[in-house]
């Protein structure tokens, strides 16, 4: 409103100049230019634009001047109109032409850039096409090579098959020849056998004849002895002798004939033997040839087997090559598809390029036409300007007369215009100040809103913290109250293992034991007394998620565990089914167990920084099992008792005696002598620690420097594997002394730092209240943890326990 009032006052006070003064000033300026001999043809576009701006300003000023003071001569108005109209048209046309020319230049530049881009894309596509063609040519070469290899392989197969067939034919021929030779050999063997039978028959006949001759000679001798008495029968006997001599001559002739036959048969036999020798030589040659043929046959069979193997492998190679050819063909088809796509894209882009080129040509033609028309218009405008110059020269004389009258009005108008400008500047400054103040106010309001939101968030966070503190306080009070109420024998904490498994767990699986409420709240707790332990039920006290660490679990349960340590009535153990770490068993109320000591020693030796470690193995010895126990172990000839630590006579009944022994036989003798000396039954157990020095860098168990056996005797029968709490310090002190002596004796292989750690750890477990907390890590997919608990092997109490899995009311 104030601005409007100021504008109204200024308008009422300022005398509005007439249009005559405005036209006079312009005409006077043009007259000055004419006097300086500057023709109108050489007027630049900038001057025309300046004149146009000045004319517009004067018209705006004149529009604000009231009409009651203006003088409107008809001549001046007409001259100004005739002067302004053609110039405006020319300027507007020139501006349009310039804008069109700029647009055409911009379009040409854009088209040129697009052409460059298209050329670059074309070059890249051509390169890709060349690369693809090269790849295609390479693949075709590889295919040709593979086809050549296939052709060669098939030719080799055909030649091998032909060779195989020829070799089979040769084998068949050799078999036929072998059968013929074998028939001939059999016939010749039959002939030889027949000749041998004839010779044997003739030998039998000759033997008979020789026997008859001997019998006849004996008869002749008998008859001669008989004829000495009977001479009167001499004549008869002489006749008989003549007859007999004739018969003998006949027999000799027969004998000669038989001998001739025998000589002839022997010649035939020699001939037959020679023939047999020849046949045997031929047979040997044939056998050699047969062996050679068999060797050839074996070689041929080997070659056939190789060829069969090659035949079996050739289809695999052929399949493999065909697969490779198919893959190459697929790749070629894919490349051809990409080439086709690229060609299609190229064709599309070429069409677009052609269309754009056509559009450019049309634009160029249109711009040339417009330029030609504009040139014609400029020529007409120049003719009109010449006419206007003549008119202006006529009007200048009239205008000079009226300039003097208008000077007074111009001075007053300029003064009023300066006042208006100053007032407008003041108004603009005031408006800027107002806008700045408004912006500052808005910024302050935004800051206030953000502060209010922060305060609201902090208030909500404080309220949530208070609620959480109240909940934690109630939970802590409930825990303390339950801890003070119950008297547990064992406390077991379960942490789910973060191992991945393929099987999906069922509804009854252990995955349902994950915390529904975060920050490891207690899911299940149940007071366990002697009845539950006797019924072999072993529930979990707490179950933790995989997101929480062991240190956080310990901090969460530290108050609960401290209370249990104070009461010295706790059993905590740990086992990881995923990493298979060592177990631990600890029962303070019943004292340290030997298994606990064993696991402590192993964990300390494994974690120590020394190169060598004492490997302690534990086993229990019974009187009836001594021979079976020590039969498999190694023996040492030099068996001597190294040291012996005994307790006082007052505490002999309940003391634990420890003896270091280096020989299994002496250990056996010492145990038997102790059993016989004390007259103890065979059910009493003796604990033996086998201690040996092991090099950690060597993985093999055979490389060991020494073995020492420590015999620990427990005189009373406790039916358990632990000692009483009041006896632990005295009983294990001797054993610790013995271990330190062992470590000092093995100075060259075992460092003192590990022995110090060992003794400190065991004394911490004995004297102070130890803060030991082991966690049972179980996979999410485990449905029964009884097997994992049996793997612990921690005595009768834990070996018979099992896990009972309940529902939301009592997870175990």
TrEMBL record:
Keywords: Coiled coil
GO molecular function, one term: microtubule motor activity
Keyword Coiled coil carried by entry: yes
Gene Ontology annotations of biological process type: microtubule-based movement
Coiled coil: 87-191, 234-440
Membrane-spanning residues: none
Protein name as catalogued: Kinesin motor domain-containing protein
UniProt xrefs under InterPro entries: Kinesin_motor_dom (IPR001752), Kinesin_motor_dom_sf (IPR036961), P-loop_NTPase (IPR027417), Vik1/Cik1_MT-bd (IPR031852)
Gene3D superfamilies, alphabetized: 1.10.287.1490, Kinesin motor domain
Kinesin motor domain boundaries: 487-807
Protein source organism: Galdieria partita
SMART domains: KISc (SM00129)
Keyword Coiled coil in annotation: yes
Classification of source organism: Eukaryota, Rhodophyta, Bangiophyceae, Galdieriales, Galdieriaceae
Short name of one Pfam family: Microtub_bd
């Amino acid at each position: 409103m104030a601005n409007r009032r100021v504008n109204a006052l200024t308008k009422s006070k300022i005398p509005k100049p007439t249009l005559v003064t405005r036209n006079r000033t312009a005409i006077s300026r043009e007259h000055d230019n004419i006097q300086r001999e500057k023709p109108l043809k050489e007027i630049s576009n900038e001057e025309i634009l300046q004149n146009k701006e000045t004319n517009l300003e004067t018209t705006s000023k004149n529009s604000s001047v009231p009409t009651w003071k203006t003088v409107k001569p008809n001549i001046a108005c007409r001259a100004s109109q005739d002067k302004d109209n053609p110039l405006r048209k020319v300027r507007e046309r020139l501006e349009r032409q310039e804008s069109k020319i700029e647009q055409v230049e911009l379009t040409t530049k854009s088209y040129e850039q697009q052409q460059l881009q298209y050329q670059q894309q074309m070059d890249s596509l051509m390169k890709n096409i060349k690369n693809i063609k090269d790849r295609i040519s390479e693949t075709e070469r590889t295919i040709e090579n593979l086809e050549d290899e296939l052709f060669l392989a098939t030719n080799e197969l055909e030649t091998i098959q032909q060779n195989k067939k020829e070799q089979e034919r040769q084998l068949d021929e050799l078999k036929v020849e072998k059968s013929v030779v074998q028939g001939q050999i059999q016939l010749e063997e039959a002939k030889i056998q027949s000749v041998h039978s004839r010779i044997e028959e003739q030998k039998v006949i000759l033997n008979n004849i020789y026997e008859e001759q001997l019998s006849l000679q004996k008869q002749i001798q008998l008859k001669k002895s008989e004829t000495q008495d009977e001479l009167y029968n001499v004549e008869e006997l002489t006749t008989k002798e003549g007859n007999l001599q004739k018969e003998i001559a006949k027999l000799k002739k027969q004998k000669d004939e038989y001998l001739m036959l025998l000589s002839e048969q022997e010649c035939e036999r020699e001939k037959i033997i020679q023939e047999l020798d020849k046949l045997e030589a031929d047979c040997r040659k044939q056998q050699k040839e047969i062996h050679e043929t068999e060797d050839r046959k074996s070689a041929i069979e080997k070659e056939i087997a190789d060829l069969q193997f090659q035949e079996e492998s050739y289809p695999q190679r052929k399949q493999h090559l065909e697969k490779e050819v198919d893959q190459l063909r697929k790749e070629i088809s894919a490349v051809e598809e990409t080439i086709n796509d690229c060609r299609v894209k190229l064709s599309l882009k070429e069409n677009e390029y052609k269309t754009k080129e056509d559009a450019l040509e049309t634009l160029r033609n249109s711009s040339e036409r417009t330029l030609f028309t504009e040139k014609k218009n400029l020529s007409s405008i120049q003719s009109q300007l010449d006419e206007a110059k003549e008119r202006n020269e006529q009007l200048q004389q009239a205008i000079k007369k009226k300039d003097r009258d208008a000077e007074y009005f111009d001075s007053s108008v300029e003064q009023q215009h300066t006042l208006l400008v100053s007032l407008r500047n003041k108004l603009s400054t005031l408006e800027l100040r107002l806008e700045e103040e408004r912006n500052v106010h808005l910024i302050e309001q935004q800051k206030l809103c953000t502060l209010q939101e922060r305060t609201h968030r902090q208030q909500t966070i404080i309220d949530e913290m208070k609620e959480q503190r109240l909940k934690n306080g109630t939970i802590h009070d409930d825990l303390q109250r339950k801890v003070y109420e119950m008297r547990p024998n064992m406390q077991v904490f379960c942490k789910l293992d973060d191992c991945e498994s393929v099987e999906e767990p069922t509804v009854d699986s252990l995955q349902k034991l994950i915390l529904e409420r975060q920050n490891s709240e207690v899911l299940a707790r149940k007071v366990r007394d002697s009845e539950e332990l006797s019924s072999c039920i072993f529930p979990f006290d707490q179950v933790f998620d995989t997101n929480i660490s062991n240190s956080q679990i310990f901090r969460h349960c530290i108050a609960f565990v401290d209370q249990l340590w104070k009461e010295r009535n706790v059993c905590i153990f740990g086992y990881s089914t995923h990493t298979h770490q060592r177990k631990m068993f600890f029962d303070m109320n019943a004292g340290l167990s030997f298994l606990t000591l064993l696991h402590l020693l192993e964990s300390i030796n494994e974690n120590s920084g020394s190169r060598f470690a004492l490997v302690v193995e534990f086993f229990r010895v019974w009187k009836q099992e001594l021979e079976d126990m020590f039969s498999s172990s190694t023996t040492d000839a030099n068996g001597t008792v190294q040291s012996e630590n005994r307790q006082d006579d007052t505490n002999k009944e309940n003391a634990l005696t420890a003896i270091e022994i280096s020989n299994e036989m002496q250990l056996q003798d010492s145990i038997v002598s102790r059993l016989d000396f004390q007259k103890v039954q065979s059910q009493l157990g003796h604990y033996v620690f086998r201690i040996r020095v092991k090099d950690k860098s060597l993985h093999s168990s055979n490389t060991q420097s020494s073995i020492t056996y420590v015999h620990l005797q427990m005189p009373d029968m406790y039916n358990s594997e632990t000692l009483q709490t009041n006896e632990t310090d005295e009983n294990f002190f001797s054993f610790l002394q013995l271990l330190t002596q062992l470590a000092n004796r093995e100075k060259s292989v075992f460092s003192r730092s590990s022995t110090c750690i060992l003794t400190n750890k065991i004394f911490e477990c004995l004297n102070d209240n130890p803060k030991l907390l082991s966690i049972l890590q179980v996979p999410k997919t485990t449905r029964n943890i009884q097997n994992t608990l049996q793997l612990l092997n921690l005595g009768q109490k834990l070996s018979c326990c099992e896990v009972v899995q309940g529902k939301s009311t009592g997870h175990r």
